[in-house]
């Protein structure tokens, strides 16, 4: 049986954090800019991809490794990676690593917008004291689109805030937490939502899922929070709604990224923008290292690793 023996990581820091490697596993450094240190390119069986980089940035380097069996992302999302490596290469994600941090930001963006904290910061820079009454989160009707690992963590963190939560998945069903509505119900459900939080993965089915029709159905003054991927939301339609003042938006992601210079959302009073930093907290590194250590143990034992999103030829 073919097994993974040589694994590349993108930095010396990561290599040192993963020592000692399990018996039978060799670790080498490959940052995708220069040739690997410690092994020839042809000998690398598995590669840990760089964090916060797109396939456009490392694609040529990955394609140059002739015998790759698996690639490991450092992000929960993996869009573009299966297409980059082809069907024969397994793909594993970092699902779980970013769940707590991204859920934190989703709640933080929601509260900041609903309590006017963004306005307060702007007023502070002007030395202005402007008390006002804002909607707040308590008693709001929250529509959560996405019920995977991060969606579960967002829902858990919403519990103490006394909201009316409705969850949406790809299809209607019941789970251990209650009812999950299908995405075909979005327009109707959006009409009853004060807050729409988006955390669904970006796939062919979810690209543009939050479209002009969904946004138009939302009540005046509602808030859209996107911590998923920018392309899940129709950027043009959202921009029009926010610039008009009808809706507000708190966005960690956008399509395209970064938000272009001079884009209308930069100056829109109802927009709060963070630079795709959902999982980028102090929790990331230790959680990522723990996941990679488990993956290396699986490789050494010839077992299936966690978070397989494409099985490749090795695990088919």
Q: What characterizes the major β-sheet? A: 8 strands, mixed
Distance between the termini: 12 Å
Number of helices: 11
Element string (H = helix, E = strand): EHEEHEHEHHEHEEEHEHEHEHEHE
**Gyration radius over CA:** 22 Å
List low-pLDDT spans: none
Helix/sheet category = alpha/beta
**How many beta-strand runs?**
14
Shape: elongated
Question: If you average the pLDDT, what whole number results?
Answer: 96
Q: What percentage of amino acids are in beta strands? A: 15-25%
User: Which sequence of strands runs across the widest sheet?
Assistant: 8-9-7-6-10-11-12-13
Helical proportion, percent range: 25-40%
Please write out the topology.
Layout lengths: L5 E4 L2 H6 L8 E4 L16 E3 L6 H9 L6 E3 L8 H5 L4 E3 L6 H16 L2 H9 L15 E5 L3 H10 L5 E6 L3 E3 L2 E5 L3 H5 L4 E4 L13 H6 L5 E4 L8 H9 L4 E4 L12 H4 L3 E3 L10 H18 L6 E3 L6
Parallel strand pairs: 1-2, 1-3, 3-4, 4-5, 6-7, 6-10, 7-9, 10-11, 11-12, 12-13
Antiparallel strand pairs: 5-14, 8-9
What would your notes on this structure say?
This protein has 316 residues and is α/β, with parallel strands linked by helices. The chain has helices spanning 12-17, 55-63, 81-85, 99-114, 117-125, 149-158, 186-190, 212-217, 235-243, 264-267, 284-301; strands at residues 6-9, 26-29, 46-48, 70-72, 90-92, 141-145, 164-169, 173-175, 178-182, 195-198, 223-226, 248-251, 271-273, 308-310. Strands 8-9-7-6-10-11-12-13 form an 8-stranded mixed β-sheet, sandwiched between helices. Strands 2-1-3-4-5-14 form a 6-stranded mixed β-sheet. The chain is elongated and about 65 Å long. The mean pLDDT is 96.
């Amino acid at each position: 049986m073919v097994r993974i023996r040589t694994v590349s990581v993108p930095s010396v820091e990561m290599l040192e954090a993963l020592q000692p490697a399990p018996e039978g596993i060799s670790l080498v450094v490959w940052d995708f800019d220069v040739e690997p240190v410690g092994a020839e390119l042809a000998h690398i069986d598995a590669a840990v991809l760089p964090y916060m980089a797109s396939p456009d940035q490392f694609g040529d380097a990955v394609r140059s490794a002739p015998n790759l069996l698996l690639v490991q992302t450092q992000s929960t999302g993996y869009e573009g990676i299966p297409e980059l490596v082809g069907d024969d290469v397994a793909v594993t994600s970092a699902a779980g690593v970013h769940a707590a941090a991204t859920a934190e930001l989703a709640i933080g963006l929601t509260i900041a917008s609903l309590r006017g904290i963004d306005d307060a910061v702007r007023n502070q820079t002007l030395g202005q004291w402007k008390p006002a009454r804002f909607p707040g989160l308590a008693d709001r009707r929250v529509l959560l689109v996405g019920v995977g690992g991060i969606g579960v963590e967002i829902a858990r963190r919403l519990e103490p805030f006394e909201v009316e939560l409705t969850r949406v998945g790809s299809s209607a069903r019941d789970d251990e937490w209650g009812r999950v509505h299908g995405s075909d119900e979005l327009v109707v459900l959006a009409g009853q939502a004060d807050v729409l939080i988006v955390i669904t993965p970006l796939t062919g089915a979810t690209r543009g899922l939050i479209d002009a029709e969904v946004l138009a159905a939302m009540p005046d003054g509602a808030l859209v929070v996107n911590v998923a991927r920018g392309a899940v939301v129709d950027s043009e339609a959202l921009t029009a709604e926010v610039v008009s003042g009808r809706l507000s938006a708190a966005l960690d992601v956008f399509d395209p990224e970064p938000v272009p210079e001079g884009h209308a959302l930069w100056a829109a009073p109802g927009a709060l923008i963070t630079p795709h930093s959902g999982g980028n907290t102090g929790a990331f590194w230790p959680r990522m290292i723990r996941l990679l250590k488990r993956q290396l143990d699986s490789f050494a034992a010839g077992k299936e690793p966690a978070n397989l999103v494409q099985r490749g030829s090795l695990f088919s």
